[in-house]
Write a structure and sequence with these properties.
alpha/beta; Rossmann fold; Alpha-Beta Plaits; 7-stranded mixed beta sheet; 4-stranded antiparallel beta sheet; 12 helices; 14 strands; about 30% helix; globular
C-alpha cells in the first residue's frame, strides 16, 4: 500500500479530529477490515468531499464520525467534544442513505418535531424556504418523490443549526435541476462558516463544491488535497481532436500517447507527454482539427489513485 499523499494543511484549530480509526467486521477467515488507520483533521469552515470506490470504507468512517459505530481503535473529536455529546448539543446534522421517514406526518410537522429536540433550532419557515420544501410543507412524508425525500432529509440535518453537516450521497434520486438547486443552498450554508463533510459518487460535485478531497481506498486515505491538487497528481494530460482516417493502432503508436478512446472521428488521447504527442499527431495526420489539450479530470485521478478501476466504475 502506497503512503498517503497529503497536499493540503491548515494551521487553524481542527473542528473534526479523527485519530487512528480502525474498524473490522466478522472474525477469523471472514474478517473484513473496513477502516485501517484513518487520520484526518478538518478545520472549521472547510467543505470536504470523501470519495472512494464501493467498499473503500467511506460509510464506516462516517458512522464512526457520527458516533453510530464504535471504532475498534482510535478516537473521534468534534469541536473538542465526543461524537455523542456534539450530536446531543445540536452541533452535528447528518443526512444518511439509510433509515426511513416517519409516516403520516406532514413535511412541516416532521421538521418541527426534530427541531424540538435541539436547544437552538433554526426558524422553521427559513428551513422550509432554504430547502425548497415550502410549497409542499403540508404533504405527508409517504407521498414524497425520491428527490423530495432527499430534500426533507437535508432539512432535518439543517434544522438544529449545526456547526458540522455530514452528508452521505446527498443528491441520490435528485434530477439535474434539483441537484443544482441543492448545491446552491449548500454553498450558501458553507458561506455561513459551517463545516461540511460529504460523500458522493458524482465526482463533478466534489470538483465543483469541495475545498478539499479525501480519497479512500481499501480502508485508508490514499490522497488528501484540493481538487486541483488531486488532479495534478496523476501527471496525465489529454488531447481531444477530430482526425479522419486514423486507426486506433496508428494513434496509439504516437510518441507520448498512452491510451486512445474514439467517438467516430473524434478521438481522445491520454498522454504521458502532451507536448511530444501533439507534435507527433500534427506530423502524422495533417488534416487534424478542433484540438483541445487539458489536464486530467477528477474521474481519471480517482481511477488512478484508488488503483481499483473495476470497483470505481461500479
Amino acid at each position: 500500500m502506497a503512503e498517503v499523499v497529503v497536499l493540503s494543511t491548515d494551521s487553524r484549530a481542527a473542528g473534526v479530529e479523527l485519530r487512528g480509526l480502525v474498524k473490522s467486521f466478522g472474525s477469523g477467515d471472514s474478517i473484513v477490515r473496513a477502516v485501517q488507520g484513518v487520520d484526518v483533521s478538518i478545520a472549521p469552515g472547510e467543505t470536504v468531499a470523501l470519495l472512494g470506490p464501493n467498499g473503500a470504507g467511506k460509510s464506516t468512517t462516517i458512522d464512526m464520525l457520527l458516533g453510530l459505530t464504535t471504532p475498534d481503535a482510535g478516537s473521534v473529536s468534534l469541536f473538542g467534544k465526543t461524537a455523542s455529546d456534539a450530536v446531543a448539543d445540536g452541533e452535528v446534522g447528518a443526512m444518511l442513505q439509510t433509515g426511513g421517514l416517519i409516516h403520516d406526518l406532514s413535511v412541516r410537522e416532521l421538521i418541527a418535531m426534530v427541531a424540538s429536540l435541539y436547544p437552538r433550532p433554526l426558524d422553521l419557515d427559513r428551513v422550509l424556504e432554504q430547502t425548497g420544501l415550502d410549497a409542499i410543507e403540508g404533504r405527508r412524508t409517504q407521498k414524497l418523490s425520491g428527490g423530495e425525500t432527499q430534500r426533507l432529509r437535508f432539512a432535518l440535518a439543517l434544522v438544529s443549526d449545526p456547526a458540522l453537516l455530514v452528508l452521505d450521497e446527498p443528491t441520490v434520486a435528485m434530477d439535474v435541476e434539483a441537484r443544482h438547486a441543492f448545491w446552491l443552498v449548500m454553498r450558501r450554508v458553507a458561506a455561513e462558516g459551517k463545516t461540511i463533510v460529504f460523500a458522493t459518487h458524482y465526482l463533478e460535485e466534489a470538483d465543483a463544491n469541495a475545498d478539499r478531497v479525501l480519497l479512500m481506498a481499501r480502508g485508508r486515505i490514499v490522497a488528501d488535497g484540493s481538487p486541483a491538487e488531486i488532479k495534478a497528481m496523476t501527471g496525465v494530460r489529454t488531447i481531444r481532436a477530430t482526425v479522419r482516417n486514423a486507426t486506433d493502432e496508428a494513434l496509439a503508436g504516437l510518441a507520448g500517447v498512452t491510451g486512445v478512446e474514439r467517438h467516430g472521428d473524434r478521438v481522445v488521447l491520454a498522454c504521458s507527454d502532451s507536448d511530444v504527442a501533439i507534435r507527433a499527431l500534427l506530423e502524422r495526420f495533417t488534416d487534424v482539427r478542433e484540438i483541445e489539450i487539458s489536464g486530467a479530470d477528477l474521474e481519471q485521478a480517482f481511477l488512478q489513485l484508488t488503483g481499483d478501476t473495476e470497483a470505481a466504475a461500479a
